[in-house]
Amino acid sequence: MDNIKKILIVSDLHGQKFTLEILKKYLEKNKLDGVFCCGDLCNRHDPNAYKFAKDFIDLIKNIHKLPLLLVHGNQEPQDVLELFNQENISVHLNEKNIFGYKVVGVGFGEELPEDKKYFKDKIVLTHEPPRKKLIDEMIKMKSINNTPILHFAGHLHKYSIIYKIGSKTQIVLVPTLQSHRAVLLTLPKQEVKFIHI
After folding, report:
1. For residue 142, what pLDDT is reported?
2. How many DSSP H helices and E strands does the chain contain?
3. pLDDT higher for 58 or 145?
4. How would you classify residue 118: left for phi > 0, otherwise alpha for psi between -120 and 50, otherwise beta?
5. What percent helix, strand, coil does the chain show, rounded to 5?
6. What is the side-by-side strand order in the sheet with 169-173?
7. Distance of CA 99 to CAs 128, 150, 188, Å?
8. Contacts 24+ apart (CB under 8 A), 133-141
9. In what residue span(s) does the Calcineurin-like phosphoesterase domain sit (predicted)?
10. What pTM, to 2 d.p., does this model score?
11. Is beta strand 123-126 parallel, antiparallel or unpaired with respect to 101-106?
12. Using one digit for the tens of pLDDT, what is the confidence trace for 162-191?
């Protein structure tokens, strides 16, 4: 059972200090193996955005000694994007390995990679979810090539939905942590569930 890994996935904290308290309490009470974030960690025009991002990173990486991977949303200012790169936690067009899985991402408003196999058999983090029309079309297909095994996306705040695409892919809309909700991923089973924290 030692090979079972639990990863908490959060999104859209928007610099709200109470979300760090929620996260801190959850991390103290639960054994986790990592944290992913789907963007909008802070707000662009908030003078405390950098400090909030730094506190978030320190809580996960330094205090709880957990791996952290993330993508940027549409609210992070430039100095926070630079912090993500300095801390080596951004998966925006930057593949990382965790527990034998390849994790990649695309930040908000960014172009998708031209390589059609870029996401194949990987865990994908994005801020924006795929459009509903595209998801509906994918669900109708019997076989889809080059798809990720899991795709986590934020941005929509109140939605918490799991779309199953064929037998392999799950697209998960991650709710905002401001509503005390997150996602818990269990590997290697690839079990995804919404949790209240």
Report:
1. 46
2. 4, 11
3. 58
4. alpha
5. 25, 30, 45
6. 96-98, 101-106, 123-126, 150-153, 169-173, 161-165
7. 25, 14, 9
8. 135/163, 135/165, 135/171, 138/165, 138/169, 139/163, 139/164, 139/165, 141/165, 141/166
9. 6-159
10. 0.89
11. parallel
12. 777 766 767 788 999 999 999 999 999 999
| Percent of the chain residues past pLDDT 90, beyond the cut | 66
Q: At what angle do helices 78-86 and 49-57 cross, to 10 degrees?
A: 20
Helix axes 17-29, 49-57, angle to 10 degrees: 0
Residue 37: both structure tokens together: 């974030």
- Mean model confidence pLDDT for the chain: 88
Cβ-proximal residues to 110 (8 Å cutoff; 6+ apart), any chain: 92, 93
Structural domain boundaries, residue 93: 5-196
Residues 183, 188, 191, 192: what is their CA dihedral angle, to the nearest 10 degrees? 20
Question: How high is the pLDDT of residue 11?
Answer: 96
Which pair of structure tokens corresponds to residue 85?
């790169």
Q: Which residue has the tokens 């994005």?
A: 126
Which residues of 31-75 form beta strands (DSSP E)?
34-37, 68-70
What is the count of structural domains for the chain? 1
CATH code for the domain in which residue 138 is found: 3.60.21.10
Tell me the mean pLDDT in the region 94-100: 96
